[in-house]
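Example for tutorial group B:
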């Protein structure tokens, strides 16, 4: 729809990536809170298990965020390459 109204292809890709980033950050925040709670439970249950290892958490957050951006870039590029008239006809 935005392409039909005059938005550029890069603008459409940026819009989709921005929304995907917001969802990824929200999911990573919830997952981080859950991992801290589970880590504390595991620390009290198992011998020799640390509650939070910062290097592991940072690396997992970075990998998951980049993976989510890559996974949303492919559909964003496909959406930006659709002919606007064809998209309006199907809607």
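The residue assignment follows.
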């Amino acid at each position: 729809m935005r392409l039909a109204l005059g938005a550029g292809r890069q603008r459409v890709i940026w819009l989709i990536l921005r929304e995907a980033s917001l969802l990824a950050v929200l999911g990573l925040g919830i997952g981080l809170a859950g991992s801290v709670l589970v880590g504390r439970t595991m620390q009290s249950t198992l011998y020799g298990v640390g509650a939070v290892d910062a290097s592991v958490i940072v690396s997992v957050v970075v990998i998951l965020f980049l993976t989510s951006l890559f996974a949303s870039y492919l559909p964003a590029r496909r959406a930006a390459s659709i002919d606007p008239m064809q998209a309006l006809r199907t809607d």
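The mean pLDDT is 81. Compare this with the pattern of hydrophobic and polar residues in the output above.
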